[in-house]
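A quick aside before the break. I want you to see a complete sequence-to-structure record at least once, exactly as it would be stored in a machine-readable document. Don't worry about memorizing anything.
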Amino acid sequence: MRDLSIKPRSRILSFKPRSRILAALALVPCLAGCFASPQGASSSDDGRSGSRLRVALAFPPAENFSPYGADATLLSRLGVTEGLTALDANGAATPALASSWRRENDRTWHFTLRDATFQDGTDVTPSAVAAALTHATRAKPAPAALAGVTLSARADGDRGLRVTTGAPDPVLPLRLSSPSLAILSPKAYRKADRPDPVGTATGPFELTEADGGGSATLDRYDDYWGGRAQAAGIDARFVKDGTARANAVRTGDVDIAEAIPVAQAATLDRDTLKEAGTTRTTSLQLNTRTGPFKDPELRAAARTAIDSSTLVKGVFEGYADPGAGIFGPAVTWAESKRVKPAGRAKPARPDGTRITLATYDNRPELPEVAQVVQQQLQKAGFTVKLEVREYSRLESDALGGKFDAFIGARNSLLDTGDPVGILASDYTCDGGYNLALLCDKKVDRAVAEADRADGTGERQDAAMAAEAAVLGTDAVVPLAHQRIIAGVSTKVRGVLLDPYERTLVGAGTRR
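That is the input. The structure line, written in tokens, reads:
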């Protein structure tokens, strides 16, 4: 196996804003020409066909654009895939491929499909949708939206779809909005273990070509049910370096660049800087299964060593809020319902305890966050080794417990829109994205109770009680609640910045 470790930088990343500007100007990347349109066509087509959009994304596909994992969000952000439902600004389910739905009993919901076609020209039929959902239930590993859930789907007439769950699921319409439950045509599932979204989705843009992890080409799908997209297509590039993404906007080489590092925000004209609240939280996850942080008293020592206000003021330069919990200010109802954690262990003296702290550099602020956290932990008495890698080269080791601590940024409502979803996937014994490797009976009971709660208010109350149970273990230390910063050309209109980070380009995005 290859050695994937990357040694951390020895210097501390604590530039002053002016220093950051000068550093960015000195590192202008040569991206011109990387965004040429297919077949040499002009990227400024005439008004009849619409211009192509040049988009720089931070994360390359890690799973060959599989709709069942992290790549699902790439597909939804580029306007390729859709589910039966979507989320509105308040986190409620709204129509997508399903025009309406109703709950028939505790375990059964009936959905009415709109008139739509797949990008291969076939009709979106109830049987095709039922087959797509059935494939998702059989995926290994299961999509995060289906963690702990069993469901079956079957056609009901020309436009009806009946979905039945193994246990009562009051948030099924929210769950079906997940990018990982996107609906693809039957052609996509010729290889059962590897669904292919190329030309088989339903969105306004069709994925036509992907060049590994470097680029992707998308063309407008003219028969999109929501109306013909105003852009002729998208030329997407995956640019890991945040400075390069910011400079590409500044020099006009791209029209849209996501995840602009806060360190580079000052290099952009104010008119090209777009900011929006997000439900993304940067957290310190502590390995509760093996190593020093198996001891709850050492986890408490790590928690008390962290000063998140320093991170917000320094690293994030105000483009974030101090860590309050798993759910931050963009989850508008959370603060008024927050429950104080109880039963926390008393902090022990670290006395030089050696730990390995890991993070990834796809989000440029994270290595700087990690270095500040490293300093704070060392000041408290820990001896800290820092590892920084590209995310796709880090995830399996993190989930396998190879590190004592891990800093990551996670959107708390991305997978399902349901607050219980992230609690189940990230902090229960059977959770599929449990970076803290937490397995606590009290937490599992609280999450299970929240999952049984019916009614919006009751479910929110139960979710916050479960959050308190998780925080009480000190398995996770919330560091900062982030805001989206995107670079957008002044010629571009209709960019979609939603707090769940599921959308970026849609049918109305144009230049």
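Two observations worth writing down. The mean pLDDT is 89. The two ends are 46 Å apart (CA to CA). We'll return to this after the break.
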